[in-house]
Amino acid sequence: MKTFLKFGTVGVLNTGITIISYMFLVYLGVNYLLANIMAYGLGVLNSYYWNRSWVFKVSAKQYVFLKFVLVNLLTLGMTTSILYILVQYFQIHAILAQVVATGVGLIFNFTLNKKWTFTNKKSSS
User: Fold this and answer.
1) For residue 75, which of 8, 18, 12 has the smallest C-alpha distance?
2) What is 6-37 written as a DSSP string?
3) DSSP string, 81-113
4) Is the CB of residue 54 less than 8 Å from the CB of residue 60?
5) pLDDT score of 123
6) Residues 58 and 40: beta-carbon distance below 8 Å
7) Those residues with Cβ within 8 angstroms of residue 7's Cβ, 6 or more apart along the chain or in another chain
8) Which of 8, 13, 14, 27 has its CA 20 to 30 A from that of 48?
């Protein structure tokens, strides 16, 4: 339960970083899709550091980083697609669409990171 709460705390921080960065970049006139990619990248960097060193306490092994990057690239592709569809086809405001896409991405990202990226292979049955 403690690990889950830590993961949730990091997730909230990442989401805040992503959404605030996204809003700021859109405010500056950056295209909403490019802003999404840039803001998500900032959240990913923060997420990797805190999940590796504080939540799951794993060493900085290359394969963990590669798994983490893959999960986050998949999440980025999914959230960017959702963002595009909501804005272009449903005419939802880009900020609201970002919040929806981020919510879906959080569930996807959490599940893959917990089940695959930061698994403890020693405890498998």
Assistant:
1) 18
2) HHHHHHHHHHHHHHHHHHHHHHTT--HHHHHH
3) HHHHHHHHTT---HHHHHHHHHHHHHHHHHHHI
4) no
5) 43
6) no
7) 51, 55, 110, 113, 114
8) 27
pLDDT of residue 5: 86
Chunked into runs of 10 residues, the chain (125 residues) has average pLDDT values of 84 91 96 92 90 80 84 93 97 94 88 83 47
Dihedral angle over CA of 41, 45, 51, 57, nearest 10: 150
pLDDT of residue 34: 95
Q: Is the pTM of this model over 0.85?
A: no
Instruction: Give the model's pLDDT for residue 82.
Output: 97
User: How far apart (Å, rounded) are the C-alpha atoms in residues 71 and 85?
Assistant: 21
Q: Which of 7-30 are b and which e, b meaning 16 or more Cβ less than 10 Å from the residue's Cβ?
A: beebbeebbebbbebbeebbeeeb
